[in-house]
Design a protein that fits this description.
InterPro entries: AB_hydrolase_fold (IPR029058). This is Integral membrane protein. This protein has 800 residues and is mainly alpha-helical. It has a domain of 235 residues: Rossmann fold, CATH 3.40.50. The chain has a 7-stranded mixed sheet, sandwiched between helices. The protein starts with a helix and ends in an 11-residue tail after the last helix. The N terminus is likely disordered.
């Protein structure tokens, strides 16, 4: 009776007499009472020695990338159960090498637009609507990702083919300034073999071709190293008849997207090659269509265009045809498609190079290649896709509205808009910088397409909006700090002293808070800014969409750069346009350098990873479902690791297991628990601290971490306790409805532990925020309560 009461108090129901746990795991022996605590660290990374608080550790299973460690004294704990009846055997799962390493990994930040658009796929609102609307949401995101691939390769074509081979090599002054282009210049090479415009373009096409090959190689290699770990087959853990998975993250094929990634990789690789082929072949075809040109070449140009359109349609069809298969472990590959589509696109590219290299007397390079139409079309299609995605997201959200969902279900479209903006800024920035380096945009060379110049010019107005938002956040932080000071005084028993100060000689004056109080209140106010991230993202995305539409309209309406278009206007307008154009170009270059610098620091510096790394680790947590060239998903290695360890250990020993996760480790722990069959999951207890499960993942990814999914996890695990602080900018409460919330969420930990100097804290206690939860005595107390309430009996389902 006492045991049943303990279970009821801690979010469990008493175990069923007819089920003792051995049948649930397929074990015929007796339970020896051994318990295991599997520790999972967060994004900052750590060492097994620190996690286990012992300098002597041994690797139990795993490799140099991710592994499970134990203390040396606990290496054979299962053979000595009597020595571990007082507490569980601690194990540490160390996965920091999946997301950190040498500074060269910072180059993955160049793939940031692909990662961001992949995030938009997973931000689908939770819905009651049918599969067609859900599939339409995924289709629109995949098409947006395809436009980003075409945009990146088109930017490389703009730099290599248009600015370098067409404009600079065809201009005597530019070719003389850059002697390495001399053999391409018809004026300097005395009409050498490579001086023909078509052959120049064919040679320059090797640069974007190499970029496409590099993207394919990185996607294939990183999948082989990170994401090829096969999840556990449900038959290997002997599931019972009632094992059903309503939660998406519990589906057998969720963490094994091999088939989809291979299909998307083939389609995007083919799209890259076809983009290069179009850039090379279309210029020659346009020359052949002029009056008096050879009829044979004109016919070849039309045939080339027809083949290009057919293959482009095949690429779009592959992207549209099929999404993720999560309900089963899909081990098959569409080998004919995976190999045939890139091979056909390479053949078309080779033919395009040969076709362009055909001798055409009298053909000279003048002006710029028709990049305005290309980039304008890509920008227009991206805008329409984002708007359509917004309509679909709102329809999905309205079927099951949740006030906690970020941006009322529009988080995916907002993030997709940011991905398109990042791609546009990077394309415009590279083109502007190369144009300035080669010869400028208003002097010797025509420069990049007008649209790219307009896109660079709208960056300063966007930064003005960002500065205004930062000012609003600063004011909001100041207001919150004032509100929190009274709460801090009350919490640490200083309210009476504050009232005495207020009623002193300066009776009605504002209370004079101490510096210690203000620091604590400021830490709480800064932590609360995380909850305002949706509003900031929504405003920036909306302004970006409007500015992008304005840049597109300005480029097509004037056909000139902003500075030239405003040259005949008022002096103030002309000066502002010229300043915005020049400043935007330089800001892109400076921003790119800062981007790579911060990325290198985040990979090499643990303190930087706690701030910058959380955003990167959120992005790379999700599988590559919308873009195959996104950075690799570490969870497709980490989640199967944890699932295999928990399932096999409980099946082998019949013992109890606690999985304890901090920060991002709590998300991995929850994802791994969902992957277990319900029969095994009932033997697992969950301890999370500093967890972003609801505060970040629940709000931004409601279809997978929404209230119903978290409530389902609470019902099916043995028990769950969540710990957090008000000064933590990442972790927060789980917020389950009703009494379930109080069962899971503990009272917020006091931070700092003491306001002033005490006997227990003779030196000032630090404000810990997101780190060192174990330093709080309340952590040990909560952990003891959790361990005291798990047992070999299997709890029944809860009502909440």
């Amino acid at each position: 009776m006492e045991r049943a009461t303990e279970h009821a108090e801690y979010g469990q129901r008493p175990g069923r007499p007819e089920t003792d746990g051995r049948e649930a795991t397929g074990r015929t022996g007796t339970d020896d009472g051994t318990a295991l605590e599997l520790l999972v660290h967060g994004v900052g990374g750590t060492t097994p020695e620190r996690m286990l608080d012992d300098p002597r550790t041994v690797r139990v299973t795993g490799d140099d990338t991710a592994a499970v460690f134990r203390r040396i004294d606990d290496a054979d704990a299962e053979s000595r159960p009597a020595d571990h009846r007082e507490g569980p055997v601690p194990e540490a799962y160390v996965w920091c090498n999946l997301t950190s390493g040498n500074g060269s990994r910072a180059l993955w930040l160049l793939l940031l637009p692909f990662m961001v658009v992949n995030l938009a796929h997973w931000m689908r609102p939770s819905t009651h609507r049918g599969r067609r609307t859900v599939r339409l949401h995924g289709l629109l995101v995949r098409l947006t990702g395809l436009t980003l691939t075409v945009l990146l390769v088109a930017a490389a074509c703009e730099v290599a083919l248009d600015l370098t081979a067409w404009q600079c090599a065809g201009n005597r002054g530019c070719a003389e300034a850059h002697t390495w282009l001399g053999f391409l210049s018809p004026d300097l090479s005395h009409h050498g073999w490579w001086s023909s415009p078509g052959r120049r373009l064919a040679l320059a096409a090797l640069v974007p071709t190499a970029l496409t090959v590099l993207l394919w190689y990185l996607s294939h290699r990183t999948w082989s190293e990170y994401e090829s770990q096969r999840p556990m087959d449900r038959a290997e853990v002997r599931p019972t008849e009632d094992d059903a998975e309503p939660v998406a993250l519990g589906r057998p094929g969720f963490w094994y997207g091999r088939r989809l990634v291979a299909r998307l990789r083939a389609a995007h690789t083919a799209a890259g090659f076809l983009t290069v082929a179009a850039a090379v072949g279309s210029s020659a075809a346009r020359e052949d269509r002029r009056p008096g040109g050879p009829a044979v070449l004109d016919l070849l140009g039309w045939l080339f265009t027809a083949v290009l359109v057919v293959l482009a349609g095949a690429v779009v069809w592959v992207v549209c045809r099929r999404g993720r298969s999560e309900r089963r472990l899909d081990r098959e590959l569409d080998r004919h498609l995976v190999r045939g589509l890139p091979t056909a696109s390479i053949a078309v590219l080779v033919l395009a190079m040969g076709y362009a290299g055909w001798s055409r007397p009298g053909w000279s390079s003048a002006g710029r290649l028709p990049g305005d139409l290309t980039f304008g079309g890509i920008t227009l299609v991206q805008g329409l896709l984002v708007l359509a995605l917004g309509v679909v997201a709102r329809v999905l959200h309205r079927s099951r509205p949740d006030p906690r969902t970020a941006l009322y279900g529009l988080g995916g479209p907002a993030v997709a808009m940011l991905a398109c903006a990042l791609g546009g800024v990077m394309s415009a920035g590279v083109a502007q910088r190369v144009a300035d380096w080669l010869g400028g945009t208003d002097d010797a060379l025509p420069g990049p397409p007008v649209l790219l110049t307009w896109q660079a010019a709208v960056i300063p107005p966007l930064l003005v909006v960002v500065v205004i938002l930062l000012g609003w956040l600063a004011r909001r932080t100041w207001v919150l700090r004032r509100e929190e000071t009274a709460a801090v005084e009350e919490e640490y028993g200083l309210a009476e002293a504050a009232r005495r100060r207020a009623s002193g000689p300066d009776g009605g004056a504002e209370p004079r808070y101490t510096a210690r109080t203000l620091r604590i209140a400021r830490a709480r106010a800064m932590a609360a800014l995380t909850d305002r991230a949706p509003r900031v993202v929504g405003i920036i995305s909306t302004v970006t969409l409007l500015l992008g539409a304005g840049a597109l309209a300005g480029a097509f309406a004037t056909g000139q750069t902003p500075a030239r278009a405003a040259r005949d206007s008022y002096a103030f307008v002309a000066g502002a346009a010229q300043t915005a154009q020049a400043l935007g170009s330089w800001l892109i270059g400076v921003g790119f350098l800062l981007f790579v610098t911060w990325g290198r620091r985040a990979y090499k510096d643990a303190s930087a990873r706690r701030t910058i790394g959380i955003l990167w680790d959120v992005g790379t947590f999700w599988p590559r479902a919308a873009h195959p060239f996104a950075p690799p998903c570490y969870a497709e290695r980490a989640v199967p690791d944890l699932t295999w360890r928990m399932a096999t250990w409980t099946q082998t020993t019949g013992g109890r297991l606690v999985i304890s996760g901090h920060s991002q480790g709590s998300v991995l722990a929850a994802a791994a628990a969902w992957q277990l069959t319900p029969s095994v999951r009932r033997r697992v207890a969950l301890l999370t601290y500093g967890s972003p499960l609801e505060r970040l993942y629940g709000r931004w990814f409601p279809a997978h971490f929404g209230p119903e999914s978290l409530a389902s996890l609470h019902r099916e695990v043995d028990c769950w306790r969540n710990l957090y602080r008000l000064t933590d900018p990442i972790g927060g409460p789980v917020r389950l409805p009703g009494r379930c919330g109080s069962e899971v969420d503990a009272e917020p930990f006091k931070d700092p532990l003491a306001y002033g100097r005490t006997a227990d804290h003779p030196l000032p206690a630090p404000i810990l925020g997101h780190s060192d939860y174990q330093a709080d005595p309340a952590f040990a107390a909560e952990r003891r309560r959790l361990l005291a309430r798990i047992g070999p009996e299997v709890p029944g389902p809860r009502d909440c």
